[in-house]
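Record passed on underneath.
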Amino acid sequence: MNFIFFMPDELRAESVGCYGHLSVETPNIDTLARQGVRFDQCHVQNTVCTPSRCSMMTGWYPHVSGHRTLWHLLRPHEPNLLRYLKQAGYEIRWYGKNDLLAAESFADSVTEARTLGKGNFRAPVHTPDQAGFFSFLYQPYDRPIEEHGDYANVMAGIEYIKSKPRQPFLLYLPLTFPHPPYGAPEPWHSQINPDVLPDLRPANLPNKPDYFTHIRKSRRLDELEEGVFRQINAIYLGMTGFIDYLLGMLLNALSDSGLEDETAVFFFSDHGDYAGDYGLVEKWPNGMEDVLTRVPLVARIPGGASRHTVEEPIELQDLFATVMELAGIEAQHTHFSTSLVKQLHGAAGDPLRAVYAEGGYARHEPHCFEGIPSRDPFARSNTHIYYPKGKVQQDFPDSVGRAIMLRTATAKLVYRPTGVSELYDLQTDPEELKNLYNNPGYKALQHNLEHRMLHWMAQTSDVVPFQTDPRGFA
C-alpha cells in the first residue's frame, strides 16, 4: 500500500465543510470524507507545529523526550515513522516545510525532500503605527500562482505521481496554509463574506488564563473592532478553500495515474488557529482550546469503509500505529499510539477514551521560550509580526507555563501548575466559555479527571529502549 499525507498547517476541524461549517467551500475534502472515513474528534498532542509533528511521527507524547518547542526536532537516535517506512523499502518523497526532522535525520528517513515556490504571503494591510499591524491581517497574494509555495509543492507531488513512481511510496506534503498571516490568492482571499459568518467566540471572558489578555494587549487586538476579527476569520476560511483546491488537483492526478486503488490518502493538520475567536489570532504554546487541539483527520484506504464517521475521541499520534499496521511493520520502540485500522474498515471508536495534549515551558528551562534575541531574528525588530509573541513570553513567562489537557467526549480539564487551570462541561458549553475549575458543583468531575490525568502521566512518563546493554566490563 502506498501512502499520501496531505497536511495543511494550522487547520482547525470546525472550519471545514464536512465538519459542519456552513460558509466555507471545501468540496474536495468533503468528497474524500464521503469516500472514506472522517474522524470527528481528532485532537493533537501539542498546539505548536514541531512538537505536534514529533508526536505524530513517533507515537510519543511531548513529555516523553522533551519535544515541546519549535527548536527540538527528531534526531537520529529517536524513532520516526518515515525511517521505519524507508527501511522497509518505501520511497519517501517530501515536498513542503519541515518542522519535523533535525538536519542529520534526513539521510536515513527520506529519499528526497524539497521546499519549492517563492513564498506564500504579500504584505500587512496596516502600517506599524496602526492598531491592526500585529493582527496578521495581510493583503491578497498577487504574484503568479505558480510561485506560491503551497501550489508549487503540490504540483511537485502531482508530477511525482504522474512519473509512475517506484512502489511502495509515501508522498508527504506538509504545506503552509492556512497558517497566518491571513492572506490568500484571489478568488479565495475574498471568497467568504464576513457578514454571513456565525458569531465568533467572545473576547474578555472571565476566569481565563492570562495569555488571553497578554496576547490582546501586546498585539493591540484590544483596540480593534469586531469586524476586523470577522474579516480575519473569513480570510482564514478562504485560505482553507485554497487548500481544498490543491487537494482536488492532487486527487484528480492520483485518479488519472491508475494508483488510486493501491494508495491510502490521509488528510490532516498539526493543530488549529484562533482565527479571531476569543478576540485572538494565531495560537499559543500552552493554549488548549478546541479551536487549537481539534483538527480534521480524513482517510481513504484501499478496501476501507466509505461514508463512515468516527464520533469518539482519538489522538493525531494514532496516525503512527495506523500506518505501521497498514504497512505491515512492527515498531521497535515503546509508543502510545493506537491503531485506527478497525475504524478505517467501519468500526466505532472507544466512547470512554480520553485524549491528551500538553505544552508550554517552565521557568527552569529558559532556552525553550520564544523571543531570545541571540536565536530568534523576530526578537530583534519591534516591527516583526512575531515580536509581540516573543516579548510576552520573555516578560511574562508564567503566561506560557507548562499545561496538560485531558479531554473526553463530554468534558475537558487543563491543569497549569503556574497559571489558571480550566474545567469545561462540553455538553452544556462546547465553546469553552465558562471555566468551572474549583466550582463546587463540579468537584466530583474535577477529582475524577485529575486522578485520571495523574494515572496517565505515571504510565507514560518515559520509555525504555528495546535494546539492552551488557552489565559487565567490555
